[in-house]
Amino acid sequence: MGNNIKETIKKRKNMVFLLIFFVLLIANILLYYSFFKHYFGHHIVNVPFAVVNNLLTMGAAIIIFGFISTRLPQFRDLRDSSIYEMGYLVIIGIFSILISYFNQSTHSGAFFMPFLNMFKVLSVVLIFMLLATKTRFFYNIMHRKATRRDLFFAFVFFSVLGCLASRYTIPVNNSFANVRNLIIMIASLFGGPYVGIPACIVSAGFRFFEGGTTALPCSLATVIAGFLGSLIYILNDGKFPKGRSVVILMFLYVGFEMALIIWLTPAYVSVVYINDIYPLMLFGGVLGMILCVMIFREVKPENKLSYEELKIMELENTLEEYEIEIEKLHDDVELLKEKNDIE
To answer: The dihedral of CA 280, 284, 290, 294: what is its sign?
Structure first.
């Protein structure tokens, strides 16, 4: 009876998960349809052959380099592993030259600069996240030992990050990309409704009072991110989702946010705005979530000992062995003394 109830609950949870992803997927499809209608519905887009040629050759080079780099670790098993190190040095050198040539030939510096700026912002956010993993409140929440104080500190931490993300943006042609919803989604998936919902309300309120044409949809997207992440947290029994699932979730949610902007702002504003920031927001959201998952995996599990603790245990075991040996030697000495006394 109990197993049947558990199976029923599990099936219902899976249905809710599928429904969430389905709704986000539909929003992304509508977003891409809006793009297609805007760019191809009124005029034909002519793409220069040189651009296509550069993109294809660059893609082919990346695939070949990836293929070679995955085979290089096999040379580690050889006695002379110098080919392994030399191979990677050659690949890195050629790849750097290729990127430099591609950048000069296509004049793509202006294109890549916003992505580099987004990576800088991500780096700052992830440094704060990495520092947070060393705190007691983070450890307690990860291992389901959170007190009200821990949840409060987590709420303050993510709220401050969410507000800062609204201020530190990446400008692209009068549009501004940020990682606010990434932060709120992480807060909700990590701390649940007691962390995610208050943090999303604070961050959304901060963004709304900043004003602007997109204030309403951006604020609404932040609130939805907090509630959606909290719902997934509850459905997943308080566990942070697996890496692949959470990355797909972030990918779809960025598209959902862009769709909200289209639906809640005039078309002459929204499409141009999204055209500038969508690739950047997608890059920041997906890459940020991947790096966040990597950071969370570095957190020491409760049943895993640190290096220092293992060394202490090893020394204690060694000391016990020495004590046993000393006792044996002491017994041998006593036996020798007894023999000498008898003789």
So the answer is: positive
Residue 59 lies in a domain: no
- pLDDT of 202 above 90: yes
**Domain housing 170:** 111-304
**5 band by pLDDT with thresholds 50, 70 and 90:** low
Q: Give the tokens for residue 36.
A: 């297609």
User: Within 10 Å of residue 196's Cβ, how many Cβ atoms?
Assistant: 29
Higher pLDDT, 174 or 192: 192
Judge contact between 136 and 150, C-beta under 8 A: yes
Tell me the one-letter amino acid at 271. V
CA distance 156 to 287: 24
- Rounded to an integer, what distance in angstroms lies between the CA atom of residue 31 and that of residue 271? 10
Q: Each residue of 135-165: pLDDT tens digit?
A: 888 888 888 888 889 899 999 999 999 999 8
pLDDT given at position 273: 77
Within-domain flag for 3: no
Question: By C-alpha distance, which of 160, 179, 203 is closest to 254?
Answer: 179
Q: Is there a domain that residue 92 lies in?
A: no
Number of domains in the chain: 2
Please indicate, yes or no, whether residues 219 and 312 belong to a single structural domain of this protein: no
CB burial of 63-82 (b: ≥16 within 10 Å; e: otherwise) equals eeeeeeeeebeeeeeeeeee
- Which residues partner with 176 through β-bridges? 171
